[in-house]
Amino acid sequence: MNKTLSAFFLSLFFVSTTVVAQKPKVWIYTDMSDNTIPGNNHMKTVNDPDDISGMAGYLLMANRFDTKGIVVTSTHRSEHKNSGNQADWANDFFGKAYKKDVVNLNKNFGGYPKNIEFIQSCIKESAEKYNSSTVYNSLEKYKTVALLKDEVEKSTEITNVLCWGSLTEPAILVNYCIANQRFDLLKKLRFIAHWTNSSLHQGTPADPAKVANCNEDRSACEFLKEQALNGSIAFYECGAIGQHGIVSGSPKGLEYYNQFKKSNLGKIFSEGKFVQDAVDHSDAATYWVLLGNWGVSLKDIASNGTNLPEVEKKNEEQFFKFSKSIHEELLRRSKAAEN
Q1: What is the domain count for the chain?
Q2: What pLDDT, on the 0 to 100 scale, is given for residue 18?
């Protein structure tokens, strides 16, 4: 075979493998909200703004995922009863930045959707928590849970549900599937949670669930962990490896993070939650483990909801080692988005 023909077939091989490669389907539940709404947490906001930086990072990486839905304000803060439509806020705040940056991102990388839309959580105004004694036969009252159910129903692939806050909505969905014997849907779901369990950080060996995201709705947390342990669902608990791996191991100083501010998404990333000389985007652990080649992958985490301290420690150390590379990748994309 001559060199020209050989090169032709080689190019066909690369084209075919690119087409065949499937982007993981992603659905995100986040407690994120407008950080100008005053509240009583340690940042004086209603919800911790770390999810804002985490979301900006996700959007910079969005060509690596097939984003099916992003639900905001999935939280139990009473202040949100009258805080205004947070989907409108997110679609304006992130939507405008994304639309400005996506042109150059597609020029330099390709594969980004033209726009990504946000949905307001069905529990945002009610602050409802999962009730362990309730059988959720219907999702009529739970629009954003029903939307995820419909998405899973029409797909033949696994949908990865990234949980950045309360587990109320995922728990309602699992309860619904069990009540209606929709085990076919449960097989197409994979839950990846940030810090709903840790013996090392916030939690204790005696009570590893004593962490913020589990305390938000302990009933939902316990229900999902029980279902994972008995094999009904796949639930990957990241623990605190985002905070104490990616964030703790990150570059420090304004000089470094000011480099992000020349792009719209980069500016949001760097300013969303800048504390202790670095950006807090710890929930990002859920999508970096899904990508799988940045120090920790799903293979390194149990699928039954457990989070042994020795496993969490090892994964924390791995993310710490890879943190600089993760931030350099985000910076590379932020610079490519400059306009």
Answers
A1: 1
A2: 39
Report pLDDT for 5: 43
Q: Give whole-number Cα distances, 19 to 4, 65, 103, 111, 316, in Å.
A: 23, 14, 22, 11, 34
Largest Cα separation within the chain, whole Å, is 71
- Is residue 317 situated within a structural domain? yes
Tokens encoding 197 = 């369990």
- Residue 130 maps to a domain: yes
Q: Do the domain assignments include residue 278?
A: yes
pTM: 0.93
Distances (CA, A) of 128 to 76, 142, 221, 225, 256: 7, 10, 14, 20, 41
Residue 42 pLDDT: 75
Q: pLDDT at position 21, please? A: 65
Mapped to the 3 state alphabet, what secondary structure does 40-79 carry?
Answer: CCCCCECCCCHHHHHHHHHHHCHHHCEEEEEEECCCCCHH
Give the C-alpha distances (Å, rounded to integers) separating 257 from 97, 267, 305.
Answer: 18, 9, 35
Provide the pLDDT for residue 184.
98
Query: CA-CA distance, 241 to 317, in Å (whole number)?
Result: 8
237 forms bridges with which residues in the sheet? 193
Classify residue 87: in a domain, yes or no. yes
Q: What is the CATH number of the domain that holds 162?
A: 3.90.245.10
Report residue 33 as tokens: 């909200």
**Which residue ranges of the chain lie beneath pLDDT 70?**
1-21
Q: Per the structure block, which two tokens stand in for 28? A: 């995100």
218-229 vs 168-179: helix crossing angle, rounded to 10: 50
Residue 274 belongs to domain spanning: 23-337
